[in-house]
Amino acid sequence: MPDSATPLHLGAVEAALTEVCGAPVAVERWDPIEPWAVARVLVSGVEGSRTVIVKWLRAGTALARAERWRLATELAALRFLRDDLALAIAPRVIAADLPGGFLVLDDLAPRAALDQLICRDGAGAHRERLAAFARALGELGAATAGHGERYRARCDALGVPRSAADQRSRFTTLWTQGHQDATALGVPIAGAAASELTAAFDELCSPGPFLALSNGDAESNNCLVHESGPADARLIDFEAGGYVHVLLDAVCLYVPGPRWISVGDPTGSGGLAEHYRRALAEGVPQAQDDQRYGFGLAAACTAWALLRLQRLADIDARVPGDHSRLQLVETVESAARTADAYRALPALSGWLRSAGEALRRRWPDADVDVSDPVAFPPYTPRVRAV
Length: 386
Description:
Layout: H1 10-21, E1 26-32, E2 38-45, E3 48-56, H2 69-84, E4 93-97, E5 102-106, E6 112-113, H3 114-121, H4 127-144, H5 148-157, H6 167-185, H7 191-205, E7 211-214, E8 223-225, E9 233-235, E10 242-245, H8 272-281, H9 290-309, H10 312-316, H11 323-341, H12 346-362
Antiparallel strand pairs: 1-2, 2-3, 3-5, 4-5, 6-8, 7-10, 8-9
């Protein structure tokens, strides 16, 4: 039985489940899933015992990801997917108590987080699961494109502030900060590159047919898969969800995310990103247009590279050999390679290559060929030097 350190009042969880089930439900065991505000909970009732997932609001307004709208955003997204679209790509909400600050979700075990499997076994052992992850991202975009008003209605009903989904404000801030960081690096964004950056951010702010639901953190740690058997995938963590340019979700297939130094070469024949693109095209046929797809993708990858460049001062302070340096070099250079592959944003691609060269000069320990799949296999984890 949980002790007094449990962050939620267990009676509230039991009451919420009792109301849904129409019969008494008791919490028998509470197993926190660190470091998140999540627990796997064994409950018992008229149908016997089962486990569920309880996700709660972090206490304290000064804590990261403690905003009250996040829980309501996740609830809106999960009910929208299941109840409005009948899409079983994410957990089902069993019970919700927003005033109490928690959700009760289906337990998707024995699925495990894809990134943990890759770190344990290497990417080569999980190519099918990576492909399932890519397809799941594409299927989410395909199924939700064109349904933004229905999702917005759910958010409004739950009191999710519209500012939480304000993409134009986000990219205006990123545009300004990107110019400042580029100047600090010694490679200002000017001339044709500056014009292309403006066009890229205009694309991301006005996606047109590419507007679809994202969980807001499309990375392999938010994908649950079976370790063996069918390579299906489920997406989790929609607390930063919203309707955005759908190709922002594809960035993780082309450019390293926070955990990885490299992600391989998805632009080649049969790459993971082709699984994503084919699935997306089922609901967004414009994804079949190389020019439109390539421009949006290059814009999204550039935005991610600029977002990661904001860490320049922090990484400068780290000791030589810290993998964060290799990761940032590969982030800007892989964004450039992606733009080149689709013949998009040529001046901005040139600036990204210049930024990579400047980082290599700044950090001689990071002047290595990160794109070499022998030295750095796809999904090589980032390791912090100590």
